[in-house]
Amino acid sequence: MRKNLVIHPFLFAVFPILFLFSRNADKLPLNVIFMPIAVTALFVLLLFFVMTFILKSRERAGLLISVFLLFFFSYGHVLTLVPNFKPVVIRGVSIETDKIFFSVWCVLLALGLYLLAKTCKNLNQLTKFLNVVAAFLVIISLSTALPRQLKAKEFIHLEGEKKEEGKNDKVTQETQALPDIYYIILDGYASSNTLKEFFNYDNSEFINYLKEKGFYVATKSLSNYAHTHLSLASSLNMKYINYLTEIVGEDSDDQTITHRMIIDHEVGRFLRSKGYSIVRFDDGMRLFGFLPMLIRTTMLGPFIERYLTRADIRERMLYELDKLAEIPRIKEPTFTFAHIIPPHPPYLFGPNGEMVSEELQGCRDLVCADWSLKEQYLGQLIFITKKIRSLIDVILSQSETPPIIILQSDHGPASSGWMQPNEQLFRERMSILNAYYLPGNGKSLLYESITPVNTFRLIFNHYFNANYELLDDRSYFSGLQNYKFIDVTDIIRGESKEENY
């Protein structure tokens, strides 16, 4: 008899990764799946050779591996369906529900593998069936994820081909004379007015520190958009992105296009043409993103949690701040884009950097941030402010050529919640920290109501002889409907009466 091609173990290994990615394809880049697919496929390949050698049957080896993968990758999904009962106490030892469930799951897996290993039935037809089922699942996942990715890629390609009128592509200075540029985003850092009005906190000491260092603080600055992916896509491409409503729909939560606009942006293209190297510090996707999410769905989840703790995440955040301080040592001119998660939840730092108790940290997921924990928000803000002060001191003291530093928040907090959009929410969410260190006479060009969309237009015009037109400074709020934009500029500035939204 002609032997069947046993491919279902490899397809079942890839499917859970593709499935999870397809559920989040509007928020993640395609490259996040490459490493887990490669590692999983290699593991299955080695296991397949070993099992085939032991069992003397490729069909039986493939069946056992596929069953193992089913149990391995479905564990976390099934666990979410199990009620969380009170811990069981046995001889004084408290055993929680998830530990009991894990033990039962392992017994079922072992029993299933044992019974399958003992079967003597012909597995040809079953192998063919599993090949078809596995291929179907992979194709369905790909058909869901790839169109979103390809659409975003095509959009960015077309955007990159556009040349804005007046842009000067010639290098205007010698590379050695170019200043390093730091674009530091403090996620959700409130303006001084917001801190005083809604949090009863005086941040003037930090503002005065910035001014003494030579920064210009735009005291009436507003964010152009209310969400990180919209705000950064706008500022890094120096334009308003309201037109995305027509592409993705106003009720969409699709972040594929905006994420790519943050990765491949007009600011970076411009600066590369001037001889800059681009340094990018992760925006939290690695800390809170796909790989940890994937691991938590597997049987490794309970063990990995011990290492992927909040303490570990704290250390990674601090590590990135330390690495930022090393940028001045790089000889060639650099553009550094650093998206710092704090003071955005989860609340992992107290005012002196101490660990916050777990019940007060808020959920780990950045999307379900709890802004109502005002004391924890302030504690984390105070701590990150101290770290930023130290970082600025290092950058200014160690830079051979005076650098350009933009210290900016992408949006403010939302302690009043999202359910009832009103003037208070608009002012709290859209008012931001926006401070500039511009060597030479660049400071004289700034004004108190400048918004992020004009940040690099102004800087490129002054330092690189570009000819970007400054845009009107407008602020567009969107709540749970990411792309339903409401111009709230006049409401925040008290020039228009509040309406019902």
Note down, in words, how this protein is organized.
This protein has 501 residues and is α/β, with parallel strands linked by helices. The protein folds into two domains: 138 residues, no CATH class; 238 residues, Alkaline Phosphatase, subunit A. The chain is 49% helix and 8% strand. The protein has 19 helices and ten strands. Strands 4-8-7-3-6-5 form a six-stranded mixed beta sheet. Helix 1 packs parallel to helix 3, helix 3 runs antiparallel to helix 4 and helix 5 packs across helix 10. The radius of gyration is 26 Å and the shape is elongated. The N and C termini lie far apart (70 Å). About 3% of the residues have low confidence.
Topology:
Elements: H1 8-23, H2 34-55, H3 58-79, E1 88-90, E2 93-95, H4 97-118, H5 124-161, E3 181-186, H6 192-198, H7 204-212, E4 216-217, H8 228-237, H9 244-248, H10 256-263, H11 266-273, E5 277-281, H12 285-288, H13 290-296, H14 301-307, H15 310-324, E6 334-340, H16 374-398, E7 404-408, H17 423-430, E8 434-437, H18 455-464, E9 476-477, E10 486-487, H19 489-492
Parallel strand pairs: 3-6, 3-7, 5-6
Antiparallel strand pairs: 1-2, 4-8, 7-8, 9-10
